[in-house]
Amino acid sequence: MRRAFTLAEVLITLGIIGVVAAMTMPVLINNYQKKVTAVRLEKFYTIMSQAVIRWQNEESITPPDFLFDDDIVRNGNQSKNWFNSSIGKYINQSSINNISNADSYFDSKFNDGSGFVAYVASNDVMHFFYCVEYKYCSLESYDGRHTFLFSLVNGQFIPSTSAQSQKTRSQLLNECKNPTSGNKSTRHACARLIQVDGWEIEKDYPW
């Protein structure tokens, strides 16, 4: 005699599957988002670093001697024009403009959907607020999850800022978790921490 499952047994089984799926799906999605973020960060760093090297070679720039002209500092249109005629020549961008018509900034969108907002803060520093997805791009945002800080310092492209370049992993982790400004949207050390970890987002990272 063939024995079939009862309706109650089927419903119980489906219920168990549903509970297991509800418990595991958020973890799987979270891990996937971490992986995508890490891959895009490494890609952005690689593309920008290579473009900077090509610009340096073409114009005989020798870090750490490079300085921006005064008329580029905190001038969105001038810095956009400078970027397009130097580093930007070696990067595929789908669009570039002045975000929110802010005078000091310009932004760029890449073909993979990511992008950045940038501005020249001083004669020696240009900041890039990289966004994993362009929709997260905004002024002065580097929250360590959707947006991250990179800088061009005296002609050298680095994650975070020069202040983080000599710090230990423990120091970087602490600063990424506890930004000195107290503002969770300005986590200076996170991009450098991920680079130190081999462009991976480790389990202790404050995701």
Query: Which strand order spans the largest sheet, edge to edge or round the barrel?
Result: 1-2-3-4-5-6
The helix fraction, in percent, is 25-40%
Strand content of the residues, in percent? 15-25%
- Radius of gyration from the alpha-carbon trace, in angstroms: 22 Å
Return the string of H and E elements.
Answer: HHEEEEEEHH
Number of strands: 6
Task: Give the overall shape.
Answer: elongated
Question: Number of helix segments?
Answer: 4
State the end-to-end distance. Answer: 56 Å
Structural class: alpha+beta
Low-confidence stretches: none
| Biggest beta sheet attributes | 6 strands, antiparallel
Mean pLDDT: 88
Report on the architecture of this protein.
With 207 residues, the chain is α+β, with helices and mostly antiparallel strands. Helix content is 38%, strand content 17%. Strands 1-2-3-4-5-6 form a six-stranded antiparallel beta sheet. The longest helix has 53 residues, at 7-59. The mean pLDDT is 88.
